[in-house]
Structures are given as structure tokens and as C-alpha cells.
Amino acid sequence: MMFATLHDGTPDGRLILVSADHARFAYGPSATLQQLLEAWDAYRDTLEATARALAAGDGEAVDPARMIATLARAWQWLDGSAFPSHGALMQRAFKMPPIETDLPLMYQGMSHQFLSARADVPFPSEDDGIDFEGEFGIITDAVPMGVSPVDAMAHIKLIVQINDWSLRTLAPVEMKTGFGWIQAKPACSIAPVAVTPDALGDAWQDGRVCLPLKVQWNGADFGHPNGREMAFGFHDLIAHAARTRSLPAGTIIGSGTVSNADYRTAGSTCVSERRGIEMIDHGAPVTGFLRFGDRVRMEARSLHGAPLFGVIDQRVVQA
């Protein structure tokens, strides 16, 4: 099944189900996605009936301009860093010691706002080092404290595509405080469609989205690394986050920057990683960060080339 949210003048919008080609929709059984996530099993039969009707050709035409972030605000946003090639590359480029842990890396970011996939993204200054980060993510129902990775799989209700905007000039300053990011991590963007794991078919394996995430910067191809190289699956990330606390329905967990070991072929999903490669190759970065007016496009399609999450296509503007 595929879900989206239409702007209706309220902060959370109106939940809809969309057809496989994203052309048609039907209203969901609850007003918002958050309400659905809090009572998923109670709505299951209605959801399946609506999905069958859409597959048979029913539904109204979708107006992409009305689609906002599938979950425009969430109870919790936890972002991982689950691709070891990204961390190893950045440590090598910046001559940093490796992080001595066998646990997943994760921080808690702002969750009261997620940007629409086609909205302009405002930033205060180009001097802050504006960067994009292409990620996959999941949305959970209510997760009990101490859940095992095996049992955590059942709590993955939806899969999403995310642009985790970052301000690289501010990040090192905040990291040195030891208290985590505030200014360096503004609102993320979420692609317009969230899908159930079964919608990925064979591309959903061991809690990983085994698809390339294709990124373009100002119309030029930037990278297409595959999500299969996560060191920890999303079920592992859920279990890590829930070790000492429960997670509310509507928790979003990100994979971190999608990155592959063969980055010279696959490219990158963030400018910082490309700059790290340039530092290794040339001793100094060549590529600058984003400027006002720049445009970033991200999309991951199915193994057969069909649409899944839709497209994130945004322009950077001055606040």
C-alpha cells in the first residue's frame, strides 16, 4: 500500500491512499496518518479494501501540488548513521580516530516539522555550509521498551525517503560541545509517498531498502548509492532506540547518508562526502556547498522502474 497526505489547511493534512502509479487516490479511513499509526490493526480490513479498489481503477485524480510531507510532524525523529563506508571515508579524509563502539550511531533531531517534497527550503546564510543528505527511513507504530530486533520488524509500518538537510559549518562547533546538534540540523524533507514494506517486493531485505537513491544537483547526476549496505537494518535501529524506552506510534527513524564502498562508481548522496573524497585525492576539497537558487532532486524507484516514494525536488532559498 502507498500513502500520502494532502494539504487541507490543518497542520497534519488529510490522509489518502494512492494507486501504484501515484495517479489516483482515495481518502484514508482516518483523518491523519498519525491516527492510522496509532490504530493500524483496527483499520487493516478497510485499508486493504481501499487498496484493492484503487488497483481496480477507482479513485480521484491526484494533484501533486497539494501533497505535503506524508507525516508533516512526528512525535519523534531519530537519525542513524548506518552506512560504514560513509563513516570510514569521513574519518580518513578528516584524519579522525574511529568511533570505538559496536552499537548503532544515532541522534535525536527536531520532529515538529517535515518539509514538503517540492517546497523551497529557506536557510539564513550560505556561509553555514548548506548540504543535502539522501536517506531512507521508516515509520513505526507503538514500540515497547526492550523489543528484540526480530520482533521490531513487525513495528515497521511504512518506509519513506528523506532529505536530511545539514549545515556543515555549524556542525563541528556543536559536536565539540558534546551535547549534539541543534543549529546544524534544520527541518528535513520527506518524499510525498510512504509505502508499506511489501510494496518494495524483493527490494526489502533484512530490514534494508535495497534500491539505488538517485541524486541530482542542479540537473547533474551526483550519485546513486544503494541502500543495501547498511551495517544495521532498520529493525536493529528500532531495537537500539527502544532499549531503555518505548517509542510512540509515529516515530521516524532514518538510515543516515546512503553510501557505498564503491563510492567512485556509485557517487554520493551528500556534498560533504564528495568533499571528503576530494581531500583524500587532492589534499583539499574542490566542491563547494549549496548556494541560494540551487536545486536538489532525489528519487528511488522500484526494481522494475515503477514509482515508489515520489520525487523530492527542491530549491534552496534565503530565509
In short:
With 319 residues, the protein is α+β, with helices and mostly antiparallel strands.
Please characterize this protein's 3D structure.
The protein is α+β, with helices and mostly antiparallel strands. It has a seven-stranded mixed β-sheet with strand order 7-6-20-11-12-14-8, with helices on one face. Strands 1, 2, 3, 4, 5 and 15 form a six-stranded antiparallel β-sheet that branches. A hairpin with a 5-residue loop joins strand 2 and strand 3. Helix 3 crosses helix 8. The protein is globular.
Counted by DSSP, the helix tally is 8
What's the β-strand tally?
22
Shape verdict: globular
Q: Biggest sheet: strands side by side, in what order?
A: 7-6-20-11-12-14-8
SS content category: alpha+beta
Unreliably modeled segments? none
Taking the sheet with the most strands, its summary is: 7 strands, mixed
Percent of sequence in beta strands: 25-35%
Question: What's the end-to-end separation, in Å?
Answer: 36 Å
Radius of gyration: 19 Å
Fraction of residues in H or I helices? 10-25%
Order of helices and strands: EEEHHEEEHEEEEEHEEHEEEEEEHEHHEE
Write down the overall mean pLDDT. Answer: 96
Top keywords for this entry?
319 residues, alpha+beta, seven-stranded mixed β-sheet, six-stranded antiparallel β-sheet, 22 strands
Furnish the topology, listing elements before pairings.
Layout: E1 2-6, E2 14-18, E3 24-27, H1 33-38, H2 40-55, E4 60-61, E5 67-68, E6 76-80, H3 84-93, E7 106-109, E8 114-115, E9 121-123, E10 130-131, E11 134-140, H4 149-152, E12 156-163, E13 166-167, H5 171-177, E14 188-190, E15 194-195, E16 204-205, E17 208-209, E18 214-217, E19 220-223, H6 234-241, E20 251-254, H7 263-266, H8 271-282, E21 295-299, E22 312-318
Parallel strand pairs: 6-20, 8-14, 9-22
Antiparallel strand pairs: 1-2, 1-5, 1-15, 2-3, 3-4, 6-7, 10-13, 11-12, 11-20, 12-14, 16-17, 18-19, 18-21, 21-22
